[in-house]
Design goal:
CATH architecture of the largest domain: 3-Layer(aba) Sandwich
Distance between the termini: 59 Å
Largest sheet: 7 strands, mixed
Helix content: 25-40%
Number of helices: 9
Radius of gyration: 19 Å
Strand content: 25-35%
Number of domains: 2
Order of helices and strands: EHEEHEHEEEHEHEHEEHHEHEE
Number of strands: 14
CATH superfamily of the largest domain: Vaccinia Virus protein VP39
Strand order of the largest sheet: 10-9-8-11-12-14-13
Length: 275
């Protein structure tokens, strides 16, 4: 163990903490501590690349998000244990998402996910609402595709309900994290690939895409084509102020349910015959 480590402190509006912590977790695989209006990242290696990535994201989002980042060097402590103590399990619909060091809940469907691997630990409003929707709509034997799978938590939830799942993500780190999380839960998937929905011609009973509004709009046609007639499309990652542009892109489908948690919207559509 080295005598010193780096600590990156990210200060931001509290409503964006979960979103940015998931972004950080997607590029950094060690402990992330989440607090009120701040995220703390610790490593014995340089964290400069994480700082630069967060600042680049903030610049891309413009006035939507104001972030300040600072790196300090500190004496080494058992920050891994500090991180573990900071991670809280969560209940989302039928599911109980918890890290491997926490006990399962007998009354729920348990999903083990060790956070700080890739997007989706259940705490963010979009992931939470998607889990609720999966509990409502996924049936045993359904074919399900998780587009932009992140940590694989949504497909894991569908699999634990008896679905046959495929997954994809453009980020190789997410693909690897998903494989690890399926192994951690002793579950299997039918297929997984690096890339997006355009790499398959299969039609699914349920397609799930928890991404961001602009990407959902960009791939709206492949997403709709990937759903069989009578099937369900669950889309999320939509800031309420961008909801209208997403709704317009999916106007050929029938809106079944709208969920909102904080400023994040999840939409559940049905693809009717000839839709």
């Amino acid at each position: 163990m080295q005598n010193k480590y780096q600590e990156l402190t990210i200060s931001l509006d509290d409503k964006f903490v979960d979103l940015i912590s998931d972004f950080v977790a997607n590029i950094y695989a060690d402990g992330i501590e989440i607090g009120e209006s701040q995220i703390i990242v610790r490593s014995e290696s340089s964290l400069e690349y994480v700082k630069e990535a967060v600042e680049a994201l903030a610049e891309t989002l413009g006035d939507t998000l104001t972030i300040t980042c600072s790196i300090t060097e500190k004496e080494n402590n058992d920050w891994v244990q500090i991180y573990k103590d900071s991670v809280q399990p969560i209940e989302a619909g039928k599911f109980y998402i918890h890290p491997s060091w926490n006990k399962p809940m007998d009354s729920k469907i348990n999903i083990v996910v060790d956070p700080a691997l890739a997007f989706g630990s259940g705490h963010h409003g979009t992931t939470f609402s998607c889990l609720e929707a999966i509990g409502d709509y996924v049936q045993k034997g359904n074919s399900v595709l998780d587009v932009g799978c992140g940590s694989g938590i949504l497909a894991l939830a569908a699999r634990k309900l008896g679905a046959i799942v495929d997954l994809c993500d453009t980020d190789p780190v997410s693909v690897q994290s998903t494989k690890e999380n399926f192994a951690l839960n002793h579950e299997d998937y039918h297929s997984i690939w690096e890339g997006s929905i355009n790499k398959t011609t299969k039609k699914y009973d349920i397609v799930i895409a928890n991404i961001i509004a602009d990407v959902l709009r960009a791939i709206s046609i492949p997403l709709q084509n990937g759903v069989r007639d009578g099937g369900i499309l669950i889309i999320s990652g939509i800031l309420d102020k961008k909801e209208s542009i997403v709704v317009d892109s999916f106007r050929n489908l029938k809106l079944m349910t709208r969920k909102q948690k904080d400023e994040w919207v999840t939409l559940i559509y049905k693809k009717e015959a000839n839709g």
